[in-house]
Structure formats: structure tokens, C-alpha cells
DNA sequence: GTCTATATAGCGATAGAC
DNA sequence: GTCTATCGCTATATAGAC
């Protein structure tokens, strides 16, 4: 038995991060005050800085935590029997997260912050790179199975798949009344036409 | 002869906006101080607030000015003989602007600001809507000429063309060493495969 | 129209009791 | 570990001379 309970500490840390994520999504990093975070989390300033050394550390924690979840998703997809179906599934799942406006806003905020903070940019680039790597594995496996146009480089293709997800983020933020399901269908069409062989070897 | 020279006033205003755009691109809106803008423009605080009522007004001026230029581009494209070629040209021209890192950063900053400032969001949405309208006109004209898959709605297609440009912005910001020319070629491929008839009526 | 000087307010982070 | 109280600093915008 130890003086501190690591599980309790982690749970509280997580609660603070979740509360802060809502604030950052709503007002952005700079306009969110540490007082806002404290109010949202129901704690005092002293407590906040007991768990995190700075406001920025709270912000970055959101994205280190998220990276773990995405990595698990990609790992599971890599084991799937049908790599092409797994690719479409992963894309649909990631696109589905955009139904939450807070997620859209957080991604936009992260992109803006990464453009001017080198350390944070490294984190975001690592996350993006991990996503592209995971997607590239699926593209390669699908290509080996003859399900993808051989003229397309897996790595470049993976970059554009990630880019298409970013396109959806920008559409979702620019058009609040966007029909996400309809756009996901179009996204699927674009992926099929972009990646599949010009004369498919089989139906699908 | 008047007491104030409108041309001179406009020129100075423009000089301030240009200097400020550099600051905003580098540090973002909130972390750019009015003192930064004054230093970059070579003026004093008193002068800055003689030309603009607030820091935010300087920021928005960047995007109202840009809207005019884009509108002119689209107007010219609408008059072109070959609407399909004009569409590809406009996309290439807009994508080409991303060679300037400052442009990429400004767009990201604008997206983040629009997510939390309703008045600024209206401006950005108007600009985006004007872009989509201009692209939709080209898609429609190309469709009338049998150059585009009839199963694709022009308005939705235009949204995704704009989205693909946003995808390129995100790629450019996430990957500093990105080969822009190579990516533009892929973008072109995606557009052709996405929009053109499945069995083209002619070469091209 | 341009400047210098400054009012006013709010922020991130710390100190130290309990 | 959590709290209250507050320090030290920086920022936007204004006032008013020239």
C-alpha cells in the first residue's frame, strides 16, 4: 500500500483534461483561462497546478491521450481479414467522430497551435505520422490482394486518405448544417474511385 | 482638392494589413500584440488605432481584401471557353498559393478563429460560399458539355473540390518538406477520377 | 495624422495555511 | 492534496501634445 493511489490520481487528471478539452474547444487555447478550466473541473487554481505544470501541458495532454486510442484502432484494423474493408471502416469511424462539434473545433485549434509552437507541432506530427503509417499498412495489404490500383504509392495514398478526413473537418466547420452521413457516402465514393483499380478484378 | 487623399489613406491601410498578416501568420491572432503590428508596419500605437478601431478589425481586413481577389479569379474562369480546363486551372492556382507558408498558417488561423467568433465566422463562410458557387458554375458548365459524370451533383462536387484544397492545406502544414508539385499532380488525379465520366466520351 | 505616455484590467503561476 | 490570496506582468485601447 502506497501513500498515493495512482489510479485515483490518473482519474482526476483525466477529469481535468476532459473539462479543459470542452473549454479549449469552445474558446480556443489563449482565450481559455486557467480559471475557466478550474470552474469546469470544479477545482481550484492550486489543484490545477498540482496536476499540471502549465496551461499548455493540459492542452497537450488531450492529444497524447487521443493518440493512444487511435493507435489501438489502427492496430485492430491491421489484423482484419479484409484490408480494403478495414480501410473504409477506419475512415468511417474517424469521420464519425466529427459529429461532435467539439472534436472539430479541437482539431482546428490543434492545427493552428501546431503552426506556431514547435514542441506541440512535433506531437501533432507524430500523431499524424502514426495515422498515415497505419493507413499505409492497410493500403499495402489491399494492394497485395489486387484490390488497389498498382500505380498508386501506398504512402502517398495514405497521406491523401488522411487529407480527405481533414477535408471533411473543414467542411464540417464551414457548414454547420452539413449532412455528415451524405458526405461520408461521397467520401467513400472518392476513395473507391481514387484507389481501386480502373478495371476492378472483382465486384465490390 | 480635398483635405485627405483617399489613395494615400488606402495605401497606408494596405501596408498595415500586409505587415499585420505576417505577424498573425507567425504567432496567431491572440499572441500577436498590437505592438508587434506597429513594429512590423513602422508606425506607433496611436497611428494603428487611427486606421483601425481594434486589433480584430485589422485581422478581418486581411480576409475581406482576399475575397475580392478570389472573386475576380472566379469571374475570369467562368468566361473561359473550356470549363473543365478552367476548373483545373483555378484549383492549381489556389493550390499554388500554398507554396507560401504564411498563407497556409493564415488559413489555419482563420479556421480556428471562425470556430469561436460568430461575426468573423460569417465572413469566412461568405468567402467559402463564394468559392463554392464559382466552382459549382464551372462544374455545371462542364457537366453540360458532357465532361463530368452526370451522377454527381454540381454543388456537392464543388464542396468537395474546395475540401480537397483544404486537404492540401492540412498536408502542407503537417509536412513541411512536402513536394507541392507532386501533391498537385495527385490532386489532379483525384479530381479527374472523382468527377469525369466513368467511360469518358473523349480523351483528356 | 502621428507621436509618447499611460490608464485599466485580466492573466498565469506561486506561496503558504490547513 | 486542496484551498485562498495575491504577485508580477503584459496587453488593448485612449488621452492629449504637436
Automatic annotation (TrEMBL), chains A, B:
It comes from the Bacteria. PROSITE patterns: HTH_TETR_1, HTH_TETR_2. Pfam families: TetR_C_6 (PF13977), TetR_N (PF00440). GO terms for molecular function: DNA-binding transcription factor activity; transcription cis-regulatory region binding. Residues 33-52 bind DNA. The lineage of its organism: Bacteria, Bacillati, Actinomycetota, Actinomycetes, Pseudonocardiales. Gene3D superfamilies: Tetracycline Repressor, domain 2. Keywords: DNA-binding, Repressor, Transcription, Transcription regulation. This is TetR/AcrR family transcriptional regulator. Transmembrane segments: none annotated. PANTHER family: HTH-TYPE TRANSCRIPTIONAL REGULATOR PKSA, HTH-TYPE TRANSCRIPTIONAL REGULATOR RUTR. Residues 10-70 form the HTH tetR-type domain.
Amino acid at each position: 500500500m502506497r501513500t498515493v493511489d495512482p489510479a485515483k490520481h490518473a482519474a482526476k487528471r483525466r477529469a481535468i483534461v476532459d473539462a479543459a478539452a470542452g473549454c479549449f474547444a469552445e474558446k480556443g487555447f489563449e482565450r481559455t483561462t486557467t480559471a475557466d478550466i478550474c470552474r469546469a473541473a470544479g477545482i481550484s487554481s492550486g489543484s490545477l497546478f498540482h496536476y499540471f505544470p502549465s496551461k499548455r501541458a493540459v492542452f497537450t495532454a488531450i492529444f497524447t491521450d487521443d493518440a493512444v486510442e487511435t493507435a489501438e484502432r489502427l492496430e485492430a484494423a491491421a489484423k482484419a481479414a479484409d484490408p480494403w474493408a478495414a480501410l473504409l471502416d477506419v475512415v468511417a469511424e474517424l469521420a464519425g467522430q466529427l459529429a461532435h462539434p467539439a472534436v472539430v473545433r479541437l482539431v482546428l485549434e490543434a492545427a493552428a497551435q501546431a503552426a506556431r509552437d514547435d514542441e506541440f507541432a512535433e506531437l501533432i506530427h507524430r500523431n499524424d505520422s502514426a495515422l498515415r503509417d497505419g493507413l499505409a499498412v492497410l493500403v499495402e495489404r489491399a494492394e497485395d490482394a489486387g484490390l488497389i490500383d498498382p500505380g498508386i504509392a501506398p504512402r502517398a495514398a495514405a497521406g491523401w486518405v488522411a487529407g480527405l478526413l481533414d477535408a471533411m473537418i473543414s467542411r464540417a466547420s464551414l457548414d454547420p448544417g452539413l449532412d455528415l452521413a451524405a458526405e461520408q457516402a461521397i467520401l467513400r465514393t472518392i476513395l473507391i474511385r481514387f484507389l481501386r483499380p480502373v478495371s476492378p478484378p472483382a465486384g465490390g
